[in-house]
């Protein structure tokens, strides 16, 4: 699987993502600085987490307006898989690649802990390594993960099977509507999620529940 | 030309920061505060003197960047 990681100033989870992609796919991802003109031909584009542009204006708002995001939008329209984690999810929402918005956590606190996630649609390139209803462990670390969409949008994404992951077992860390942790675009080739599967891929992390997200993608490209 | 853009959360969108401020105001002895909603203010200086053109540009700025219209409304005021 060929992958690319987009890097914006202020991200800090890019190295974890690069390590996870390298270990699981056996190939180091291309690293694409946000001002680079070329987005190489890849099977997967990843926008990792962090604090792009210091979260100025709104989380992900400035990064979402970078020219590189036009390239990402074109590739997504051509069917390339795009994954956004944490700040990457916020950037995909601000760029209009996914519907809705992420608001300040209901507790107003930055939350850094492990949660439980239910896989609510295992029939996608990102989730095929799991089964429907499977509950996995996953770390979260964010201040603005409280997913919100208006009632029409919410009904549509729920009805179309576009909720990929939901916080389970009362572990919703942010007040997210319908316990939503990760959503897909209409074509289901763009996934944004707040939790960090790249931080739970081997025994040294204390578990590997996040690994199947990447190995599932690898299976598709192989 | 000077302009002020005010961005506020849409009605019905949860505002935990506003709620926390409301709680703090009550704690300071202002029991009459029924509701607080937090927003943002942008003061801009725009080249030119054509107010209509400035308003049209500001509207575009709000829609493209200053406001997230999924959750926020915006208001534009020419201040001179």
Q: What does this 3D model show about the protein?
A:
The complex is a heterodimer of chains A (222) and B (80). With 222 residues, chain A is an alpha/beta fold. Chain A has one domain: Rossmann fold, CATH 3.40.50.880. Helices cover 25% and strands 25% of the residues of chain A. Chain A is built from 6 helices and 11 strands. In chain A, the strands form 2 sheets. In chain A, strands 2-1-3-4-11-10-9-6-7 form a 9-stranded mixed β-sheet, with helices on both faces. A two-stranded antiparallel sheet of chain A has the order 5-8. In chain A, β10 (180-184) and β11 (190-193) form a beta hairpin. In chain A, α1 (14-25) packs across α6 (211-221). In chain A, 54% of the residues are buried. Chain B is an alpha+beta fold and 80 residues long. Chain B has one domain: Phosphoribosylformylglycinamidine synthase subunit PurS (Mth169, Chain: A, 2-Layer Sandwich), CATH 3.30.1280.10. Helix content of chain B is 35%, strand content 28%. Chain B has 2 helices and 3 strands. A 3-stranded antiparallel β-sheet of chain B has the order 2-1-3, covered by helices on one side. Chain B is elongated. The termini of chain B are close together. The relative contact order of chain B is 0.35.
- What is the 3D form of chain A? globular
The CATH superfamily of chain B is identified as: Phosphoribosylformylglycinamidine synthase subunit PurS
| Number of separate domains of chain B | 1
Helix content of chain A: 10-25%
Radius of gyration of chain A over all CA atoms, rounded: 16 Å
Total domain modules of chain A:
1
Q: Spell out the helices and strands of chain B N to C.
A: EHEHE
- In the CATH scheme, the class of chain A would be Alpha Beta
Indicate the CATH topology of chain A. Rossmann fold
Q: Architecture of chain A, CATH level 2?
A: 3-Layer(aba) Sandwich
Total helices of chain B: the number is 2
- Ranges of chain A with pLDDT <50 over ≥5 residues? none
**CATH level 4 superfamily of chain A:** Class I glutamine amidotransferase (GATase) domain
Number of strands of chain A: 11
Count the DSSP helices of chain A. Answer: 6
Net shape of chain B: elongated
